[in-house]
Amino acid sequence: MTKSFEFLTAGMLFLAFNATSVLAFPGAESDRVRSRLEREVRHELVMLPYYSVFDNLAFRVDEATGTVTLMGQVVRPTLKDDAERVVKSIEGVERVKNEIEVLPLSPEDDRIRIAAYRAIYGDPALKVMCIRRFRRFTSSSKMVS
Predict the structure, then answer these.
(1) How far apart are CA 67 and CA 84, in angstroms?
(2) What is the count of structural domains for the chain?
(3) DSSP 8-class letter at 59
(4) Angle value at C-alpha 134, between 132 and 140, nearest 5 degrees
(5) At what angle do helices 36-46 and 124-144 cross, to 10 degrees?
(6) By residue range, what is the domain housing residue 57?
(7) Alpha-carbon gap, residue 141 to 35, rounded angstroms
(8) For residue 73, what is the domain's CATH number?
(9) Sheet with 95-102, side-by-side order of all strands
(10) Fewer Cβ atoms within 10 A, N terminus or C terminus of the chain?
């Protein structure tokens, strides 16, 4: 039982850091290189009120046609709709393809998510990493806005 919980915790750790890295830390690209439209889409998605560590959002922008494709997985069905709504409101976006998958809703899934969150962010060594990521995230979001 503990072996499977450790495996689950390790998997959730990977997912949690991966989920935040898709939007908050898009790799080596600088804000100056990315287009205005990409910066605005990223900013609007990151600012969604119910976006959490258990959501995995990504997007692709085709500037020639003004099409934004939303991808990933979310825990709340409303987040899928909210993401589409805020991206549609951005100037220059002509069409939004929403390919976001809503993860199954169940009390058992929520229990596992809460246990994994506590296991990940309850560890003092990992809590320091979380604080560093949060500081980088808030400073980069200020540059975008």
Answers:
(1) 12
(2) 1
(3) E
(4) 105
(5) 130
(6) 2-144
(7) 15
(8) 3.30.1340.30
(9) 56-62, 67-74, 95-102
(10) N
- Tokens, residue 85: 């709504």
Round to whole Å and give the CA distance between 120 and 85. Answer: 32
Whether 72 contacts 22, CB under 8 Å: yes
Question: Stretch 27-37: mean pLDDT, rounded?
Answer: 57
Element (H, E) at 72: strand 67-74
| Alpha-helix runs per DSSP H in 63-123 | 77-88, 107-121
Digit-coded pLDDT (tens) for 84-136: 999 999 998 999 999 999 998 888 988 998 888 888 878 877 776 665 544 44
As given in the structure block, the two tokens for residue 76 are: 């709340």
CA dist., res. 118 & res. 121, Å (int): 5
CA distances from 96 to 75, 115, 141 (A): 20, 35, 23
